[in-house]
Each structure stands twice: as structure tokens, then as C-alpha cells.
């Protein structure tokens, strides 16, 4: 119980074994929420490490191994979190993958796989969380991972950019439909964050453009007006706001948190 005698709010963060998701999970725990962290089976050890870090701060933590593209797994994940931590108040649909390739070399199978995680996964997490929050009857905060490419695609990241553009649309529709239940739905749009995802993007862009390793991220970083590559904590600070009552009058927005690359 908190000082006010109310149970701490509970957040679920997908793709939280590393990178931005880990940063968000640790920040929400620091904000006083109990936190469930999700990732795929291959990252189970890292995921447990994140849960241990949260528990060390005095908050309750639990891990849920699940693939966000699987409807049954997502439904079970939400049920498990509500059963173990008592409720679900904040859903952060963060899990995502990138694929760097010219459109003319991409395959329908690669396209479907990327969409199954980046778009269908977000849709499944949004809807499963909303059903749980409506059942609880006390509103909630649903938050999705978009990107600056939801406003202006990067070449060689065509399907990825389209998936993030679609997350922006889904976020607007969900905000309209669930406002009546006191649920706000917003998305964060990071720019260039130095995570494993950008290690991969840098390597692939370098291959495609005949650059040395590290050169692509340097090149793209020249676009950042604030003059440095982002860290997960930059994004987590904004998600902290979206998860808090301070953002209660904001819904349907996909907001750039990119050091000043893209302007809407
Ligand atoms: N790194 C960047 O510059 C940017 C990242 N983003 C978005 O932020 C989110 C997090 O990105 P990063 O932390 O950089 O990526 P990352 O690759 O470091 O971490 C993503 C996590 O998601 C997990 N994941 C992948 N597929 C999954 C699935 N099917 N089910 C559950 N978990 C799954 C991975 O195992 C990994 O732990 C992604 O949605 C990404 O598209 C958006 C803009 C910029
Ligand atoms: C990975 C990503 O979304 C960007 C913009 O770098």
C-alpha cells in the first residue's frame, strides 16, 4: 500500500529485456509503480535481470515471457499480470523489430513478420489491456511505440516506417473509442536511440551504402539539433509523463521525442 492507502498502480512493459523497454520499466518503478516486464523466450535471463533491478528498488515486479504477435499469449499475459499484481493500469506496447532493406528486395514474408510484431502486436496489447481496464472500471493509460518514421519514413526502412505510421493511426482510433472509459491512448516517437536496434540498423545501412561500421549512425546523427544520440532514459522520461495523471487531458497523440530531428 502507498502512503495514501491505495495499492500502487501496475504497469506492463513489452520488449523490456533491454533498450528502451528496460529504460521505461525502470523509470516507472522509480515513479512508484509495480511493473511487469515482458519479452521473448530467448531473452529470459535479461528479462529476469530487469525484474531483479525493479525488485531491488522495493517495487513488486514480475516477468512474462510471451510473443506479442500471438493473441492467446497476449491475453494470457494480461490475465497473469492482473492476477499476480492485482490490476493493470498502464500498458506500454514497446516491443518492436526493424528490417533494413530496399523495398524492391524485401519479401512478403518479411513484411508480414515485421507487421505481426510492430503493428499486430501493438493492436493485441492495446485491446487486451483496454478490455482489462474497462473491466476494472477506473480508466487507464495505454502507450505505444511509434517513431519519427511515423511522420517521415527513412529509406531502406519502408515496411518498418509503415508499421510505425500505422501505430499512429491505431493510437488515434483507440483514443477516440476508449475516451468514454477514461482510458487515454498515446504513442512516443523516438528518433535515434543507441540500442541494439540501432546497432543492427547501422550495420545494415553501412552494408547497403558501402560505409564502415558506425558511419551510418554518425551520418544520421547529424540530423539531431540537440547534438547527441538519444539514450533510453530520454524516452522513458516522456513515457513517465504519459503514464502519470499529469497527462490526463492528452489522448490520441504521437509525440516526437527525438532531440529535434523531425517537426510535426
Ligand atoms: N532505437 C531507436 O532508435 C528507436 C526505437 N523505436 C522503437 O522503440 C521500441 C524499442 O526499441 P529498442 O529498445 O531500440 O529495440 P531493441 O531491439 O533494443 O529492444 C526491443 C525488445 O523487444 C523484444 N521483442 C522483439 N520481438 C518481440 C515479440 N514478438 N514479443 C515480445 N518482445 C519482443 C526484443 O527481444 C527486445 O528485447 C521498438 O518498438 C522500436 O521500433 C522507435 C524509434 C527509434
Ligand atoms: C529505429 C527508428 O525508428 C529510427 C527512427 O531510427
Automatic annotation (TrEMBL):
NAD(+) binds at residues 39, 67-68, 94, 160, 164, 190-195. Its EC number is 1.1.1.304. It comes from the Bacteria. The keyword Cytoplasm does not apply. It holds the Pfam family adh_short_C2. The active site is at 160 (proton acceptor). Coiled coil: none annotated. It catalyses: (S)-acetoin + NAD(+) = diacetyl + NADH + H(+). Keywords: NAD, Oxidoreductase. One of its GO terms (molecular function) is diacetyl reductase ((S)-acetoin forming) (NAD+) activity. It is an enzyme of class 1 (oxidoreductase). Belongs to the short-chain dehydrogenases/reductases (SDR) family. This is diacetyl reductase [(S)-acetoin forming].
Amino acid at each position: 500500500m502507498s502512503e495514501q492507502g491505495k495499492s500502487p498502480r501496475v504497469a506492463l512493459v513489452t520488449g523490456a529485456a533491454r533498450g528502451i523497454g528496460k529504460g521505461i520499466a525502470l523509470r516507472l518503478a522509480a515513479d512508484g509503480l509495480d511493473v511487469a516486464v515482458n519479452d521473448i523466450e530467448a531473452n529470459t535471463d535479461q528479462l529476469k535481470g530487469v525484474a531483479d533491478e525493479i525488485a531491488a528498488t522495493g517495487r513488486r515486479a514480475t516477468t512474462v515471457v510471451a510473443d506479442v504477435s500471438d493473441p492467446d499469449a497476449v491475453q494470457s499475459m494480461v490475465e497473469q499480470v492482473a492476477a499476480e499484481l492485482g490490476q493493470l493500469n498502464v500498458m506500454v506496447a514497446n516491443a518492436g523489430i526493424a528490417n533494413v532493406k530496399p523495398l524492391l528486395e524485401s519479401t512478403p514474408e518479411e513484411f508480414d513478420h515485421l507487421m505481426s510484431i510492430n503493428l499486430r502486436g501493438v493492436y493485441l496489447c492495446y485491446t487486451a489491456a483496454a478490455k482489462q481496464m474497462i473491466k476494472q472500471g477506473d480508466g487507464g493509460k495505454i502507450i505505444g511505440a511509434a517513431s519519427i518514421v511515423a511522420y517521415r519514413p527513412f529509406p531502406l526502412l519502408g515496411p518498418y516506417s509503415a508499421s510505425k505510421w500505422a501505430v499512429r493511426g491505431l493510437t488515434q482510433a483507440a483514443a477516440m473509442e476508449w475516451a468514454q472509459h477514461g482510458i487515454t491512448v498515446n504513442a512516443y516517437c523516438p528518433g535515434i536511440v543507441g540500442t541494439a536496434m540501432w546497432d543492427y540498423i547501422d550495420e545494415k545501412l553501412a552494408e547497403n551504402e558501402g560505409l564502415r561500421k558506425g558511419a551510418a549512425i554518425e551520418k544520421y546523427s547529424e540530423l539531431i539539433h540537440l547534438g547527441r544520440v538519444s539514450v533510453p532514459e530520454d524516452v522513458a522520461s516522456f513515457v513517465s509523463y504519459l503514464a502519470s495523471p499529469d497527462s490526463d487531458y492528452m489522448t490520441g497523440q504521437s509525440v516526437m521525442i527525438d532531440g529535434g530531428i523531425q517537426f510535426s
